[in-house]
Amino acid sequence: AQSVAQPEDQVNVAEGNPLTVKCTYSVSGNPYLFWYVQYPNRGLQFLLKYITGDNLVKGSYGFEAEFNKSQTSFHLKKPSALVSDSALYFCAVSPGGGDYKLSFGAGTTVTVRA
Amino acid sequence: DTGVSQDPRHKITKRGQNVTFRCDPISEHNRLYWYRQTLGQGPEFLTYFQNEAQLEKSRLLSDRFSAERPKGSFSTLEIQRTEQGDSAMYLCASSTRQGREAFFGQGTRLTVV
Questions:
Q1: What Cα–Cα distance (Å) separates residue B42 from each residue in B11, B13, B55?
Q2: Does A101 sit within 8 Å of B48, measured CB to CB?
Q3: How far is B31 from chain A (nearest CA, A)?
Q4: Are B15 and B84 in contact (CB under 8 A)?
C-alpha cells in the first residue's frame, strides 16, 4: 500500500522569502507524485507532477518540486513566496501501472505574511 | 466553464435519509473518481470508473454507498440511510486515458444532522 507524509502541519514565511513544503512517500515500484493546492471554499487545483525524467519538475504559479528517490521525498518549493500563495497544500502519490487512485497526505497550511 | 462540475455544492440532510450527488467530468475524460475529505485530512479514495465500468471500490465504501456512471459521462454517488459520520466533503475528479493527474471539482459538502 502507498502512503504520503507531510511532516509539517503549518509553514509560515514572509513574502519574498523561499517557500518549502515537505513530502515523503512510501510506495512499491516507481511512484507517480503530485502536488495540489486548495484555497478556501474551492476544490483541489493541480500544481505539478513527477512521472519520470528530470528530478526537478516545474509547475503552475512558479512552483517547482524536487524528486529524491534515495530519500523518498518530493518537496515543493517556490523561490519567492507571495501572500496569495497562502493556502492548503497536498502531496499525493499513485503507485503507477494500472492503479490510478491517489493517496494524499494530510496537508500543510502555508501562510505567507506581508 | 469546462472543469469538473458537482451538484449540489451543499446538502444538509437528516440522519436516515438518502442523498444523491452528481458529477459531470471534463468532456472526453474517460476516468472518473470519487474521494471523501473530512476536516483536517487529505482526500480519501472511494471509487473509480473507466468509462462506464466501476473498476475499484475502497473499503471505505460501505454497502450504503453506491456509485454509477451509466453512459460513461456523468456519475452519481448515492448514500442510503445517512449517518452523522457521513458528514464530509465529497470530491469528484476526472482524468484522461493518458494523463495521471486528476482534475477536481469543487465538491459537495454533506452535513448530516
A1: 21, 24, 22
A2: yes
A3: 9
A4: yes
* Cα gap B22→B77, rounded to integer Å: 7
Confidence at B98, pLDDT banded by 50, 70, 90 = confident
Measured CA to CA, the distance from residue A11 to residue A7 in angstroms comes to 10
CB-nearest partner of B107 from A43, A46, A51: A43
State pLDDT tens for residues B7-61: 999 999 999 999 999 999 999 899 999 999 999 899 999 999 999 999 999 988 8
- Beta carbons of B104 and A43 less than 8 Å apart: yes
Residues of chain A with pLDDT under 70: none
Mark A3-22 as b/e (b = at least 16 C-beta within 10 Å).
Answer: ebebeeeebebeeeeebebb
Task: Report the alpha-carbon distance of residue A39 to residue A50 in Å, rounded.
Answer: 22
Task: Using the CB atoms, write b or e for A69-98: b if 16+ within 10 Å.
Answer: eeebbbbbbbeebeeebbbbbbbbbbbbee
pLDDT of residue A1: 80
Cβ–Cβ below 8 Å for B102 and A90: no
DSSP class of A94: E
